[in-house]
Please model this.
Amino acid sequence: MKKLTDIKFKVEYVPWEDIYNVYGAIINPINNGFKTVDVIKPLECDRYTLENGEILADKADLNPMLKTKRSDLQALMDGLWNAGIRPTDYKDQSAADLHLQDMRSMAGKLLDHVLGDKNPITTTNIKDHL
Model:
């Protein structure tokens, strides 16, 4: 089976400029004994004048800035993650937090089992009592 191309990304933080450099390369399959690498160059931007908040359709060549496979986007996401970038709404749960969550659940189930209907602490409100 012929190997497909693979996209690699590297993200590095430049603290003195407070920016991130993103590097990308397309690794091509071996052809005639050689593996080739296509280095992704900086993006280019075109400026268009807006009329009433809309780009003039006849003047703008609107194409996606990137067309790629999910696995390539995953490689970009992995590179960003390795550089410390997290989604805005990401909540990091440490192993200790997950362990406490498990312990609360087990304690609540044990109390339910031992006390039955007389248990004032249920599995849904146990963390309020800890």
About this structure: The chain has two domains: 1-42+65-87, 95-129.
